[in-house]
Design goal:
- By secondary structure, this protein is an alpha/beta fold.
- The protein contains 10 helices and 10 strands.
- It has 2 domains: about 130 residues, 2-Layer Sandwich (Nucleotidyltransferase, domain 5); about 180 residues, ATPase, nucleotide binding domain (Nucleotidyltransferase, domain 5).
- The strands form 2 sheets. It has a 5-stranded mixed sheet, with helices on both faces. Strands 8-7-6-9-10 form a 5-stranded mixed sheet, sandwiched between helices.
- A hairpin with a 2-residue loop joins β7 and β8.
- α1 runs parallel beside α2 and α4 packs across α5.
- The longest helix is centred in the C-terminal third of the chain and has 29 residues.
- About 50% of the residues are buried.
Length: about 325
């Protein structure tokens, strides 16, 4: 079983090939020009996907050593994400499948992040609790088996990655802000400012980071922070970054571990772009050990948006005989379940 997976939900054009569950290639082209705008510009992202998708798919096939006529199916993301970006990969994937006379498989982007934990070994055992944290999403999910999920909670406002980017912008840091905050936080004091932790109700698995972001804004106003000048004070910025990051990480870890205990799962996993955060990884490894839990984190290249996770979902669906109709449309607000 050989599957080509295509990912174009935001600003990465990516394609990958999986054969019999083994990743043969994974090629990703990042759209770095968005940095100068301080965020992803949807129209420019979709145009870039149009330019990049053919060479990216060709390179993925070339690197895998597999010809187009050896493919058994083509999988592509159909949501959630930026509709213009989704449409590029979705239309290309459906057209390619139709031209080759093979099945097409539509993939939910959030489901792909969860199952990115199955790309490499070791893999979590079912059931496990997965925390997906990215620029657009923060979700806590009980994974009973592939395609059998229970959404335990998600963000009520800003996603964790979105909060990182917005705080970075307040501080005058470069986009994307998450890696910048992470890098500076390593040099700072996490107890410099006691920013609030929003746990919501005692038994809630929902998240909220808007209040934390606002708290950072009010703090910067109180100290009369001027991002055009004060970001030259590296110690101050590092301390603010460390304090903010600690507040986010505390909430993420508390809810993930509590969910694992409630549902009596031995394995926990994280996915999404924020899963690359060094402090989150460090703290999770420590907490997992303290609570006798096994922690699974995908390689960095599988945390950000990538074709490998799309190909993996396509592969698992095809094993179950599940394909999609070519009438499948883009759903920018697609839910997990």
């Amino acid at each position: 079983m050989t599957i080509l997976g295509i990912e174009t939900s935001c600003d990465e054009t990516s394609a990958a090939v999986i054969r019999d569950g083994k990743l043969m290639s994974n090629v990703t082209a990042a759209q770095l020009f968005h940095k100068k705008y301080g965020g992803v510009v949807p129209e420019l992202a979709s145009r870039a996907h149009q330019r990049l998708i053919v060479p990216v798919v060709d390179e993925a096939l070339s690197n895998s050593g597999i010809r187009k006529d050896q493919l058994d199916a083509v999988a592509a993301v159909y949501g959630p994400g930026l509709i213009g970006s989704i449409l590029v990969g979705l239309s290309f994937g459906k057209s390619m499948a139709l031209g080759l006379g093979i099945p097409f498989v539509g993939v939910n982007h959030m489901e792909a992040h969860i199952l990115s934990n199955l790309i490499d070994s070791p893999k979590p055992s079912f059931p496990f609790v997965n925390l997906t944290v990215s620029g657009g999403h923060t979700q806590l999910v009980l994974v009973r088996k592939p395609f059998d999920y229970e959404l335990l909670g998600e963000t009520k406002d800003d996603a964790a990655g979105e909060a990182f980017d917005k705080v970075a912008k307040m501080l005058g840091l470069a986009y994307p802000g998450g890696p910048e905050v992470d890098k500076l936080a390593a040099k700072g004091n996490s107890k410099f400012v006691e920013f609030p932790r929003s746990y919501l109700d005692e038994d809630s698995f929902e998240f909220s980071f808007s209040g934390l972001k606002t708290s950072v804004l009010y703090y910067l106003r109180r100290i009369e922070y001027d991002k055009s000048k004060n970001n030259g004070d590296s110690a101050l910025v590092a301390n603010i970054c460390a304090s903010f990051q600690a507040a986010v990480v505390d909430v993420l870890i508390q809810k993930l571990v509590r969910a694992a205990k409630k549902f009596q799962t031995r394995d926990i996993a994280i996915a999404g772009g924020v899963a690359a955060n060094s402090e989150l990884r460090r703290r999770l490894k420590a907490v997992a050990g303290e609570n006798n839990l096994s922690l699974f984190i995908p390689k960095f290249e599988y945390c950000t948006d990538n074709g490998a996770m799309i190909a993996m979902v396509g592969y698992l669906k095809m094993l179950g005989g599940v394909a999609s109709d070519l009438e499948l449309t883009a759903e920018p607000n697609l839910e997990l379940c």
